[in-house]
């Protein structure tokens, strides 16, 4: 660890004293303050004449303890997302995550994702929006509208278009590439992802939603079946160098594909973002696409503080401090991302912790969780058999011994 990193960890340790957490409790286990959840225009159904403000609290950020993590960052003299570029590769996002009316936007999909990452907070009334509002959000368009919403001449997500867009991404400094969409795999896409990894970028993508009947792409997963595993078919999440994100909210987990490639999870709904009407809006329905944006925001927040981390070290930090038990799950991977833990724990303490592809092979549904009490139960069975056998012997010998005692007394 460098001297600067060590000094920063010392600051974080002191800052952590101001964050009240139950002993041993993961961030996701600590309930949010009792406050009304955010209400306002739906991000994907907001017209230019809709209300510009929301009220309540950002449910997703509260669940992830983003306010506490932001306070720790502030005590380390960092603003959440400071010095981190987040390239959002999706639909058109004029102006990035900045406020401003966009009445002619064909789809609000990319804008919603960008706002989850870096949207500025609402001031009156005060409501937090983006997880990392100091991040530099850079738009990169690769399609017009999501599948099923296209009209004449409008494009939907495709592998070729995504590969070309990723080839154009300029990796400078700490760079996160968020792709809140899914496509089929291709050699060109794999090459583009490999280039980004070599350049030092962290790529984050959704693990996929259950498609509607007749959707075309991934239609074979429209009916959920036992043993189903979409790991090989959902790109770019299928690439081992990409952080694949699932949904942690029980309310919306049924919408997520079973996917053994999942690394991390986030609520997937409840965020406050930026709307096309030039104000704020609420993400009302869950999706792995919004969960990926939430993880990208957390990654930017953490990287703004741990600025000595490489992209691979940042990934290890996020995975090792997630809320799971160390075994991969086809819905939540290593668990819910936890920015407070990720900020406080030194990288050295993560040494030797297995990555997901060392625990569960890609392309297979994770096996049942390891039975940590199996040995204890096995020993208990043998002790029980031994004790039971001894009891049987005593019961058999009891009459014989009694007769012998009777003879000796006469």
Key terms:
single chain; 410 residues; alpha/beta; Rossmann fold; 2 domains; six-stranded parallel beta sheet; 10 strands; 33% helix; 10% strand; signal; hydrolase; transmembrane helix; Peptidase_S8/S53_dom; membrane
Break the fold down into its secondary structure elements and pairings:
Layout: H1 3-16, H2 59-63, H3 66-75, E1 84-90, H4 109-118, E2 122-123, E3 126-127, E4 136-141, H5 159-167, E5 174-178, H6 187-199, E6 202-206, E7 242-247, E8 264-266, E9 272-274, E10 280-282, H7 288-305, H8 311-320, H9 339-344, H10 356-359, H11 374-409
Parallel strand pairs: 1-4, 1-5, 5-6, 6-7, 7-8
Antiparallel strand pairs: 2-3, 9-10
Helix pairs in contact: 1-3, 3-7, 4-7, 5-6
Describe the structure.
This protein has 410 residues and is α/β, with parallel strands linked by helices. The chain has two domains: 3-359, Peptidase S8/S53 domain (Rossmann fold), CATH 3.40.50.200; 375-410. Helix content is 33%, strand content 10%. It is built from eleven helices and ten strands. The protein has helices at residues 3-16, 59-63, 66-75, 109-118, 159-167, 187-199, 288-305, 311-320, 339-344, 356-359, 374-409, and strands spanning 84-90, 122-123, 126-127, 136-141, 174-178, 202-206, 242-247, 264-266, 272-274, 280-282. The protein has a six-stranded parallel β-sheet, with helices on both faces. Helix 1 (3-16) crosses helix 3 (66-75). The protein is globular. It starts with a helix and ends with a helix. The model is unreliable at 13-33 and 352-383 (pLDDT under 50).
């Amino acid at each position: 660890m460098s001297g600067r990193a060590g000094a920063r960890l010392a600051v974080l340790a002191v800052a952590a004293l101001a964050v009240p957490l139950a002993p041993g409790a993961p961030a996701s286990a600590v309930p949010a303050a009792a406050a009304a959840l955010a209400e306002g225009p739906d991000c994907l159904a907001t017209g230019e004449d809709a209300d510009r403000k929301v009220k309540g609290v950002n449910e997703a950020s509260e669940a992830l303890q983003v306010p506490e993590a932001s306070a720790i960052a502030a005590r380390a003299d960092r603003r959440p997302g400071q010095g981190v570029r987040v390239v959002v590769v999706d639909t058109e996002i004029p102006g990035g995550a900045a406020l401003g009316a966009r009445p002619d936007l064909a789809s609000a999909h990319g804008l919603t994702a960008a706002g989850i990452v870096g949207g500025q907070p609402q001031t009156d009334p005060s409501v937090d929006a983006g997880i990392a509002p100091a991040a530099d959000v850079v738009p990169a368009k690769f399609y017009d509208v999501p599948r099923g919403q296209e009209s004449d001449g409008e494009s939907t997500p495709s592998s070729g278009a995504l590969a070309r867009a990723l080839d154009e991404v300029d990796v400078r400094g700490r760079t996160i590439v968020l792709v809140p969409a899914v496509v089929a795999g291709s050699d060109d896409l794999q090459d583009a992802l490999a280039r980004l990894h070599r350049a030092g970028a962290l790529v984050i993508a959704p693990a996929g939603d259950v498609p509607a009947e007749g959707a075309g792409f991934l239609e074979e997963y429209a009916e959920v079946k036992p043993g189903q595993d979409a790991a090989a078919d959902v790109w770019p999440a299928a690439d081992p160098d990409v952080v694949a994100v699932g949904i942690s909210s029980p309310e919306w987990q049924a919408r997520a594909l079973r996917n053994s490639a999942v690394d991390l999870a986030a609520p997937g709904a409840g965020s406050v973002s930026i709307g096309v009407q030039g104000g704020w809006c609420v993400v009302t329905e869950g999706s792995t696409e919004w969960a990926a944006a939430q993880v990208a925001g957390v990654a930017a927040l953490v990287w703004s503080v741990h600025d000595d981390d490489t992209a691979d070290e940042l990934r290890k930090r996020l995975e090792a401090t997630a809320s799971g038990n160390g075994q991969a799950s086809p819905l939540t991977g290593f668990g819910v991302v936890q920015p407070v833990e990720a900020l406080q724990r030194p990288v050295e303490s993560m040494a030797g912790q297995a990555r997901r592809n060392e625990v569960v092979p890609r392309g297979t549904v994770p096996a049942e969780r390891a039975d940590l009490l199996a040995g204890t139960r096995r020993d208990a069975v043998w002790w029980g058999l031994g004790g039971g056998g001894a009891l049987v012997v005593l019961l058999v010998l009891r009459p014989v011994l009694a007769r012998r005692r009777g003879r000796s007394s006469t």
